[in-house]
Amino acid sequence: MDQAPEETICAIATPPGEGGVGIVRISGAGALQIAEKVVRLRSGLPLASVPSHTLHLADISATGLSGSSSPSAVAAPLDEGLVVYMAAPRSYTAEDVVELHCHGSALVLARVCAACIAAGARLARAGEFTKRAFLNGRIDLSQAEAVLDTIRAKSDEGLRLAQQQLRGDLGREVERLRARLLTLLAHVEAGIDFADESIEFVGRDELLRSLKETTASIEAMLTTCRSGRVLREGARVVIVGRPNVGKSSLLNRLLQEERAIVTSIPGTTRDVIEEGTVLDGVPVTLVDTAGLRETTDEVEQQGIQRAKAAQEEADIILQVLDAAEVAADRTPELPEDAVAGRRLVLLNKMDLFGEERGRRLAEVLRHRTNAPVIPVSAVTGVGLDDVKQGIRSLLSPGSLESRESVVVTNVRHQAALQQAASSLQQAYASIEARIAPECVAVDLRGAADALGEITGAITSTEVLERIFSEFCIGK
Ligand code: GDP
Ligand code: ZN
Q: Percent of the chain beyond pLDDT 70?
């Protein structure tokens, strides 16, 4: 029977360029029927007769296409490769899927894909395979987004979080909270009379307690956002300090390559220099700034302005001091309390001191600031591992260390959680003020729907379009 084969999609699933293998993927009710027209198994069996999820050597050609003048004659073979049929619903899209594993040649793949289209498939749109997995209920929306995060992950930590979300951990937690809200909503809608304490005292109190708990859970998830974003997208680590204390040298050392210009003339690093790297599993952008000091030189003034701006957007500030200056008690700027939680003080040029004297010097400094003080040397590399660990621990306080907890990395999820939290606060206030249950119900519904947007239980075409348009064709 013909099952709307025009809704069967196909695309090259592997990245462009040469490779060992390249895969054309077909998905939809007509996948088998279309594949039968372009592959011929070496075993001679029809593709439809082989067990699902098994690989078979095949000739791939356009021979079977109606329109070829003589089917039996020599239609030039496109490739030979392996074919696998994955019967619905046990496939990526939860539909019938056929994959043609060809040689990794852009030309071969383009031809095979064109043959599939000639056989009745339609070229898939960006993200359409994943979108179908979502629409068919195999994954929730947060998992679909995690597919993209997984593909794009640039660090071990980012990958770990993407895979956690891909497993559905976030979606499950959000659905749990949403189910609780819907139960509460049912109670409220059933008509709890908040004004009549003699009858409904328990109901009202329980409602408040349950609301408080749910709000606390949502707020706990929200607190993971900053660390989550940083782990996924990377942290801005800004190096500040007076001219000549060794900022550029430390940057170079951390990058392990010569990028910034190192000189012994004060004030030569005039521009902010940025460089991305991965420290201890965390992607970071290291930013070197011009020396923060009073100056009349116009070019350097501009550099200093930019350095101040860079410091304001920093996730972490590495404040570099020259140990010799500290020893001579010409100690420059020490951390202000406002940024203490995101600042490390690096006592540089430790190689010029004896170990014992260096340690005492660091101790003295520690009494004068509540930021961690790390003795380092850009010349010998001493202390740089401590710097990396220091950055890591400032970025992932407490809860993140527990590998079990759900971490929110996506700004769309963050916005939805904020919306839910504020609706719940509103509902709470309304109950306390004994405002009509109808108003409370509206806020509870609002909160539940906000959570539903995360998993896609509640969706708009606009949101779906935005999410899936970020994917590549073939995913
Ligand atoms: P910036 O102006 O803060 O960027 O300082 P630079 O990185 O340009 O370094 C200024 C001078 O200090 C250069 O001559 C470096 O070789 C020297 N220097 C930097 N770090 C160290 C260190 O750890 N030990 C010693 N002995 N010299 C250093
Ligand atoms: Zn410099």
A: 81
Task: Give yes or no for residue 267 CB within 6 A of ligand 1.
Answer: no
For residues 203 and 186, the answer to whether their CB atoms sit within 8 Å is no
Q: What is the ipTM of this complex?
A: 0.98
**Residue 268 annotated as lining a ligand binding site:** yes
Write the secondary structure of 43-80 as one string of H (helix), E (strand) and C (coil).
CCCCHHHCCCCCEEEEEEECCCCECECCCCCCCCEEEE
Q: Last residue of a domain, which of 341, 364, 395?
A: 395
> Mind listing the pLDDT tens digit for each residue in 241-300?
888 899 989 998 888 754 544 554 555 554 567 788 887 777 888 888 764 444 556 656
372 and 391 both lie in a single domain: yes
- Does 428 lie in the same domain as 291? no
404 part of a folded domain: no
Return the bridge partners of 346, or none: 320, 374
> In this structure, what is the dihedral angle of CA atoms 133, 135, 140, 142, given to the nearest 10 degrees?
90
443 is in an annotated binding site: no
Query: Does residue 131 fall inside a structural domain?
Result: no
**Residue 272 CB–ligand 1 contact under 6 Å:** no
> What is the 258 CA–ligand 2 centroid distance (Å)?
12
120 lies in which domain range?
A: 9-124
382, 375 Cβ separation under 8 angstroms: yes
Percentage of residues in the chain having pLDDT higher than 90: 45
If pLDDT is split at 50, 70 and 90, which confidence band does 463 have?
confident
264 CA closest ligand 1 atom index: 14
Identify the pLDDT of residue 252.
86
Q: Into how many domains does the chain fold?
A: 3
Domain assignment present for 402:
no
Looking at residues 142-149, what average pLDDT do you find?
Answer: 94
Residues 372 and 259 in one domain: yes
260 with 182, same domain: the answer is: no
